[in-house]
Amino acid sequence: MSADPQKIELLIAMAEKLIAALEADIAALKAGRPQELRTTDPEFQRLSVLYSREAAGIDAACAKAAPSELRRKFFDSAARFREVLALHARLLTRMRHASEGIVKAVAEEIKRRRAPTCIYAPAASTARAHAVAIVYNRVI
Q1: Percentage of the chain with pLDDT > 70?
Q2: How far is CA 4 from CA 49, 52, 117, 136, in A?
Q3: Has residue 131 been placed in a domain?
Q4: Within a domain: 101
């Protein structure tokens, strides 16, 4: 494959847009405003699919044939993209674990409150069943 500087420059520009969106997400997550995530936007998802498709077309021979300054910028942007993506993934995992912990705590509290308070009383037939799962946004 021949070195196409325009293709590499396009990848660098796409990576910068993706990095900017990921950094905005990181700032929103750190500020506790997950509703402001930009990566849920369909445009971001289209750009990330296009980036992965274009990046798959760049092989080692193509990168080596590119001018050294462009190659350095390409490797720097790719390394920065990986770092920001890893940080973003860690923050999202933490948020997911925290929200799952909250849902679990609420479910356990509901179960505790619905439990009978007097354990030595004769068993009465109750019409309601004990909750074993809690539905969150209508998804189990």
Answers
A1: 81
A2: 20, 17, 74, 49
A3: no
A4: no
| Average pLDDT of the chain to the nearest whole number | 83
* pLDDT at residue 28 in the model: 92
- The one-letter amino acid at 83: E
Q: Which residue range(s) make up the domain with 19?
A: 5-95
Q: Which of 35-39, 40-44, 90-94, 129-133 has the lowest mean pLDDT?
A: 129-133
User: Tokens 């809690």 label which residue?
Assistant: 134
**In contact, 71 and 63? CB cutoff 8 Å:** yes
Residues 79 and 71: their CA atoms lie apart, in Å, by 12
Judge contact between 44 and 21, C-beta under 8 A.
yes
Q: Which residue has the tokens 């019409």?
A: 127
CB atoms within 10 A of CB 106: 12
- How many domains, the chain? 1
Q: What is the pTM of this model?
A: 0.70
